[in-house]
Write a structure and sequence with these properties.
Layout: H1 16-50, H2 53-60, H3 64-70, H4 74-94, H5 103-120, H6 122-133, H7 137-140, H8 143-165, H9 175-191, H10 193-200, H11 207-225
Helix pairs in contact: 1-2, 1-4, 1-6, 4-8, 5-8, 5-9, 5-11, 9-11
């Protein structure tokens, strides 16, 4: 009988388990982001009713079964796309560092940002149009969407309060109503630019017209909040 000791069998290094799990997690996140980006473009182009899961899979370059693995139906995928759309705009707003600006400068910057973001992301407006067409039922059931939007109103309230305390803003300005006005001034103009351009005989998206609209929006909003 040989007395040479056998080399013990080595189990996989424990460290490899979390590495594999981390890689799988990254792959899953990448796949979900591909799906959400493709779905965003599909919903923006065709609306919820006209969107097709086959085309979303083709846009994402993934198997359709993988989409159903993460999202059990088109409705839940649309809800996730809306959440992503709100997350993106709220993240971009946070990058403005409005809290560090003088109150009037912060409000002006928010108006400028909102206008520019809507111009650069027309898919955001079309997604909102589609959501409203379905009475926003997907947002009503999304706690995440409400959590994403609440900090914006809190931040705006803090800016308004700073302005009230330093004497530059009048009191009694509701931050929610103010933001709706900012968003509405940009949203209505852009969502209806084709009809407005036609009936008034002007190209309302020409560079000159866009600049005039932005200046008007800033004047309207600052004229409302500034102490006279």
């Amino acid at each position: 009988m040989s007395t040479t000791p056998r080399t013990p069998r080595r189990d996989p290094a424990p460290a490899s388990v979390p590495v594999v799990a981390e890689q799988r997690s990254r792959d899953a996140e990448r796949s979900q982001m591909l799906i959400l980006t493709a779905a965003r473009d599909e919903f923006a182009e065709y609306g919820l009713a006209g969107a097709r899961m086959d085309r979303i899979a083709e846009r994402a370059g993934l198997n359709k079964r993988l989409i159903y693995y993460y999202f059990d139906e088109k409705e839940s995928l649309f809800e996730a796309v809306l959440e992503l759309a709100y997350r993106d705009i709220r993240d971009a707003e946070q990058q403005l560092n409005l809290q560090e600006m003088a109150p009037a400068d912060a409000i002006k910057r928010l108006v400028q940002f909102t206008w520019e973001y809507y111009l650069e992301h027309p898919e955001f407006l079309t997604l909102l149009n589609s959501a409203n067409l379905h009475k926003a039922r997907h947002l009503h059931q999304s706690q995440r969407a409400r959590e994403l939007n609440s900090p914006l109103i809190e931040m705006l309230a803090a800016i308004l309060e700073r302005g009230r305390k330093d004497g530059s803003f009048r009191g009694g300005v509701d931050p929610l109503q103010l933001y709706i006005s900012i968003a509405g001034l940009a949203y209505f103009y852009l969502s209806n630019n084709h009809t407005l351009s036609a009936i008034f005989g002007h190209d309302l998206l020409s560079p000159k017209a866009r600049q005039e609209r932005l200046s008007h929006m800033v004047d309207v909003i600052l004229g409302y909040v500034l102490r006279s």
